From TrEMBL:
It comes from Lentzea alba. InterPro entries: AAA_22, BTAD, HTH_77, OmpR/PhoB-type_DNA-bd, P-loop_NTPase, Sig_transdc_resp-reg_C-effctor, TPR-like_helical_dom_sf, WH-like_DNA-bd_sf. Keywords: DNA-binding. This is AfsR/SARP family transcriptional regulator. One of its GO terms (molecular function) is DNA binding. Residues 1-88 bind DNA. Belongs to the AfsR/DnrI/RedD regulatory family. Residues 1-88 form the OmpR/PhoB-type domain. GO terms for biological process: phosphorelay signal transduction system; regulation of DNA-templated transcription.
Length: 1012
């Protein structure tokens, strides 16, 4: 049992369980007995100490009753001839533990026992005042002891001095602390205050000790002590690692050995130096730095450390090591110490033995080591040092650690260098291309003396020739990027070298199965050794370890692979591996295992792309076609259209070497990716579709079941579109049959058969759900939501958009997720729930920032502007509209749609601002672009907007006619738009228009002032 009195009275049982003592008088009895642990306290003494001058009538019985109550929780209370005794050892009472630690010169540990005022809850007892006064005095003395042996804290000493103004020892400590800060006048003022108080209140002079401190202060003998800085000179600013410094400081506070591990060039030495410079022991001159990079033999290690102490050991070489350790332990053992051991990797075993022995012999020592692999000894805390943070598509890159470091070093060699529109893309590319590695970034920045930032970017592929301008005063291995990597490479065994150079074929890293199949069988133990030596990185991906190299190490390893003569064999294995992998997983992209397949592709897509690019470059037609066929649908699912378009273009460039069915399939995909209503030409699309049918491609690749009907539909060939829908509907593939109904719904909508279109969408949705294709179900939900919104049921549309968004997020399809969120925000605004609409745009912004897609953020600006416009916040909407137009003009994603979208947004703003003439001019632009590409749904929307403009001008007949034309184009009005509903309420339901669609389009163009 343990009793605590330095605060409220508490008892803890032997197993650590708190004990409920009971009432106040019982606590008083326990506290009194605990002040004499293991010794009997006479009954009379206890009665006096508990009740004082007013004991109860039957004091003995009252005491016995208290003892009985106490025994229920503390059985160790016994009655002996000399009185009542609490049978516990003194060290089990915190008061006596405090006294013991203080006497042993460990005031900090003693003070840590205090939890408040001593005897805080029993001070009413007659015995408590005397005991509490003694303990309070001892506590203050311990505080003084701690400051005497530790760091002098002016703030803490001032607070204590104000509470105890007559304590001369405390005043002396405060005076010393103030003098060390250069505040001599404040120190002398403290002395005068104490001298006056002593004279006024006690009638005495200050003690001889305090007078001596006063004289020393007058003479300036207590001024600031110069800090002994034994760390390497820091000539450049420290940038980009603030969080790491805080974490290392926390580790050093808890562990006696902290090792910074990481690859060469990661900045381990500079980080360790900065951490040591900020450590409290540095201000006391108790930090040493031992550079081990130049040490070649294990027996010279102790000598290198002694060199850091500016000591030498001569004599017999056999005795030198042991004598050196004695001298090192003697210096470090003189007080708390921190020793930095820099670059241990090439002496790893000897460094581990040396550090173990040193920590054993010097209990108050902490060691901060840097190495490319752990020391692997008991008590070691590892801190991995990786690259600085790098941007990933974000517009604002200034806060990333890699960018901050590059800019800092760049401005040093090229004053005036700034991060602006002319440099930001190159700086981003440099930081990403060099993995955010500090040394590489510094070497790149040094090149600005003689190159432009664009020239540096263009030469990153030749990084080992480029990055050779390091500091002349740096170690040889840190002057060039190649030397940094070679230093690590030379430490590898033959087995490790073979595996390391072969792993370079994986640009995106690989799991163990891939490495063993492509590189070396049964390679786990060698692989883990490469991880330990910071040649290979390991990351956890869905609980499966994945191994990768930093790009600089991978480039060097690839050079070694080429020099070894193994390159052709290993690259061949690599490409065949990914052909087999994509052949396995491609069909599963359209099944219930879709998420599992996407996870595989997410991890492997850069490897697949590298295998595909290599096969195309080598004109290996069969392999290239298989790889593209294996990854193409995944790229479309994820919205990676640009990568897909480039790969298809390059494959088709192989021309006649491609099998006819492959050429037809990818030509169809090329057309559909670039398609919009009216494009491509009807004849060209029809020919490609016939080629797919005649070569048997439609039987081999299910994605054609959706591509060919839609290609025919968009090229305005409804008969051919119907034929291809019928072909897909007869397929043995369930996914193809779902795709057929999905495409059919487009055709039916265009024909005005809305009920049949809804039935086709429902069938498509049910079939996509049945096969497990989330992408198909999400696309169908989005279509259903749009058409339900047109009926005026905004809430039902919102529910469908939310379901589509959930599926898109599950698929991690960035484009679909942003578009679903955008549509959801606009639908809330159309409903009139402006708070929900704003919430959805905020969530969309957060999502776009998280994925680092600035192109998508431009689209969010458009959605936000529309939401603000519908909420009546016109000034904010106008500002966002201008920003959208400015940013979208340079967008590779929006390109041709910028003019159209801006025109529609500006037209709506002009109507809301009461400027219909401006609105008329702007909307004519959108009428022209939508009609030129025969996009009937978009043209209907623009026509409804033109009707609103005419109504705002007071031209009711023209507005009514335009509503009728919009209904003819789409087949229905967009009654989910409150502005359209208002027009219908004012003008009535429009009469049917007896015109063909072509005639209707011509009339709309004429209304907008566009001549054919």
């Amino acid at each position: 049992m343990r009793v605590a009195l330095l605060g409220p009275t508490t008892v803890v049982a032997e197993d650590g369980t708190p004990v409920d003592i009971g009432g106040a008088r019982v606590r008083m009895l326990l506290a009194r007995l605990a002040l004499d642990p293991g010794r009997p306290v006479p009954t009379a003494t206890l009665i006096d100490d508990l009740w004082g001058e007013q004991p109860p009538a039957d004091a003995a019985n009252a005491l016995q009753s208290l003892v009985s109550r106490l025994r229920k929780v503390c059985p160790d209370v016994t009655l002996e001839p000399g009185g009542y005794r609490l049978g516990i050892a003194p060290d089990n009472v915190d008061v006596f533990q405090f006294d013991r630690l203080r006497a042993a010169g460990r005031p900090a540990e003693a003070l840590a026992l205090w939890r408040g005022d001593a005897l805080a809850d029993v001070r009413e007892a007659p015995f408590a005042q005397v005991a509490a006064t003694r303990l309070d005095e001892a506590r203050v003395a311990a505080e003084e002891d701690r400051f005497r042996t530790g760091e002098l804290d002016v703030a803490a000493l001032t607070a204590m001095h104000e509470k105890h103004p007559l304590r001369e020892r405390l005043a002396g400590l405060l005076m010393r602390a103030l003098c060390q800060q250069g505040r001599q006048s404040d120190a002398l003022h403290v002395y005068e205050q104490v001298r006056g108080r002593l004279a006024d209140e006690l009638g005495v002079d200050p003690s001889a000790e305090l007078q001596q401190i006063h004289v020393a202060a007058l003479r300036g003998e207590l001024g600031p002590r110069p800090v002994v800085d034994r760390l390497p000179v820091r000539l450049t600013s420290f940038v980009g690692r603030d969080a790491e410094l805080a974490e290392i400081a926390g580790l050093l506070a808890q562990a006696r050995l902290v090792t910074l591990v990481g690859p060469g060039g990661a900045g381990k030495t500079r980080l360790a130096t900065e951490a040591a410079a900020r450590h409290p022991l540095h201000g006391k001159g108790r930090v040493w730095f031992a550079a081990l990079a130049g040490v070649r033999a294990a027996e010279d290690l102790a000598g290198a450390v002694l060199g850091a102490f500016e000591l030498r050991v001569g004599g017999d070489p056999l005795r030198r090591a042991s004598e050196g350790m004695d001298r090192i332990a003697e210096v470090l053992g003189a007080g708390e110490s921190l020793l930095v051991l820099d670059n241990c990797e090439h002496l790893i075993s000897s460094a581990a033995e040396f550090t173990t022995e040193l920590l054993r012999r010097v209990p108050n020592l902490r060691v901060l080591a840097t190495s490319r692999e752990p020391l692997a000894i008991d008590g070691e805390s590892l801190y991995p040092v990786g690259p600085l943070s790098v941007p990933n598509g974000q517009a604002d890159v200034s806060g990333f650690g890699a960018v901050r470091l590059f800019l800092d070093r760049a401005s040093a060699v090229k004053p005036g260098f700034l991060l602006d529109e002319s440099t930001v893309d190159d700086v981003r590319q440099i930081c990403r291309g060099l993995d955010g590695m500090p040394l590489a970034l510094e070497l790149a920045a040094a090149r600005l003396r003689s190159m432009t930032v664009r020239q540096i970017t263009q030469r990153l592929d030749d990084r080992f020739r480029l990055l050779t301008s390091g500091s002349r005063t740096a170690l040889p291995r840190q002057r060039t990027l190649r030397a940094v990597v070679e230093w690590s490479w030379d430490l590898l065994t033959e087995e490790e070298l073979r595996l390391a150079r072969r792993i370079s074929v994986f640009p995106a890293g690989a799991d163990l199965a891939a490495i063993e199949q492509v590189c070396v069988e049964d390679s786990l133990y060698v692989l883990t050794s490469l991880v330990e030596k910071s040649i290979v990185d390991v990351i956890e991906l869905d609980a499966e370890p994945r191994y990768r190299m930093l790009e600089t190490i991978r480039v060097y390893a690839a050079e070694q692979l080429e020099a070894s003569g193994e390159q052709q064999e290993i690259v061949g294995r690599f490409r065949r591996y990914y052909r087999e992998l994509t052949e396995k997983w491609e069909p599963l992209n359209r099944t219930a295992r879709q998420l599992e397949a996407i996870a595989v592709y997410e991890a492997e897509q850069d490897n697949i792309a590298a295998a595909l690019r290599g096969a195309i470059d080598d004109r290996d037609v069969d392999l290239a076609a298989a790889l593209l066929g294996g990854v193409f649908w995944y790229w479309l699912l994820k919205g990676d259209n640009e990568r897909a378009q480039v790969a298809v273009r390059d494959l088709l460039a192989l021309g006649g070497q491609l099998p006819d069915d492959v050429h037809a399939s990818f030509r169809a995909m090329q057309l559909i990716m670039a398609a919009m209503p009216g494009l491509p030409a009807t004849e060209e699309a029809a020919q490609v579709i016939e080629d797919c049918v005649n070569t048997g491609a439609t039987q081999k690749w299910p994605p054609l079941a959706i591509a060919l009907p839609m290609l025919a539909f968009l090229s305005q060939n409804p008969e051919l579109a119907r034929r291809e829908v019928k072909r897909a509907a007869a397929s043995e593939d369930a996914w193809a049959r779902a795709a057929a109904d999905w495409a059919l719904s487009f055709i039916l909508v265009d024909e005005g058969e809305f009920d049949l279109a809804e039935e086709a969408r429902d069938r498509a949705y049910e079939q996509f759900i049945a096969v497990g294709d989330r992408w198909g179900s999400a696309m169908t939900l989005g279509m259903k939501a749009t058409f339900i919104s047109h009926t005026g049921d905004n809430r039902a549309a919102i529910e469908l958009f939310e379901r589509g968004l959930a599926v898109a997020l599950e698929l991690r399809s960035q484009d679909d997720a942003v578009q679903q969120r955008w549509r959801l925000a606009v639908e809330y605004a159309r409903l009139g729930d402006h708070a929900a609409a704003e919430r959805e745009t905020i969530e969309a912004e957060r999502y776009v920032q998280a994925i680092g897609n600035d192109q998508m953020s431009i689209m969010i600006d458009y959605a936000k502007a529309e939401v603000l416009l519908r909420a009546g916040r016109l000034a904010e909407a106008r500002e966002l509209s201008d920003r959208f137009k400015r940013r979208a003009t340079t967008s590779a994603v929006l390109h041709s749609f910028v003019t159209e979208w801006s025109a529609m947004l500006e037209s709506r703003l002009a109507v809301a601002e009461g400027n219909p003439a401006e609105a008329e001019a702007r909307i004519a632009i959108a009428v022209g672009t939508t009609s030129d590409r025969s996009d009937m749904p978009d043209l209907a929307t623009v026509t409804e907007l033109l009707a609103q403009v005419r109504f705002a001008e007071g031209r009711r007949d023209s507005a009514a006619r335009l509503l009728a034309l919009a209904k003819r184009i789409r087949g229905r009005l967009d009654l989910g738009d409150p502005d359209v509903r208002m027009l219908v309420a004012e003008l009535g339901e429009p009469e049917p228009v007896q015109l063909t669609k072509a005639e209707t389009v011509r009339e709309i163009r004429a209304e907008a002032g566009i001549s054919d």
